[in-house]
Amino acid sequence: MTERSPAPGGLALVEALVNTLDIESGADSLDTAESRARFGITRDEVEDARALRESLRVVLLAHAGHPPHREVPPLGDLLAGAPLVVSVDGRDGSAALAPADEGPLTSRVAAAVAEALVAGTWTRLKACEATDCLWAYYDRSPAGRGRWCSMQVCGARAKMRRYRAKGG
């Protein structure tokens, strides 16, 4: 739904996962084998991936100052079972958080959230305020006050609704 470039670093995984559901049409790409392969999940793991996706969406809505779109398990509870390890490069001493087990999607998401938290980019990943969209996007605006995934689509629709509501 958005013309924006993908989120930086591991946030691209989070953004891509949240954007597997088109709220407006109801199409869920996790229903396809190709999309499941992209996220490294099996058909049996889809329901867990959907729960993770919607918990992430609630957090991204909170980043944008919006209430939850529905009741979901808390993201912290879902990520609690995904231990991270600190890896240190012996050559230059750089350190990074990484999943203790690279396989599970939850572990990879936990590592991406931790990386973004350290980088200061976590709260820039938001969900579009349009209730018929809720698409994830990375807010690159200078003040960090972006509201829509796409100014040309969701932003224009919101402005038109406001205009019409005023009797325009």
Structure description:
40% of the residues lie in helices and 10% in strands. By secondary structure, it is mainly alpha-helical. The strands form 2 sheets. It has a two-stranded antiparallel ribbon with strand order 1-2. Strands 3-4 form a two-stranded antiparallel sheet. A hairpin with an 8-residue loop joins strand 3 (125-127) and strand 4. The mean pLDDT is 88.
Order of helices and strands: HHHHEEHEEH
The main β sheet shows up as: 2 strands, antiparallel
> Approximately what portion of the residues adopt beta-strand conformation?
5-15%
Measured between the Cα atoms of the first and last residue, the distance is: 27 Å
Helix/strand/pairing category: mainly alpha
Helix amount: 40-55%
In order across it, which strands form the biggest sheet?
A: 1-2
Please report the total strand number as a whole number: 4
Counted by DSSP, the helix tally is: 6
Q: What overall form do the CA principal axes indicate?
A: globular
Task: Name the poorly predicted regions.
Answer: none
Instruction: State Rg.
Output: 17 Å
The overall average pLDDT, rounded, is 88
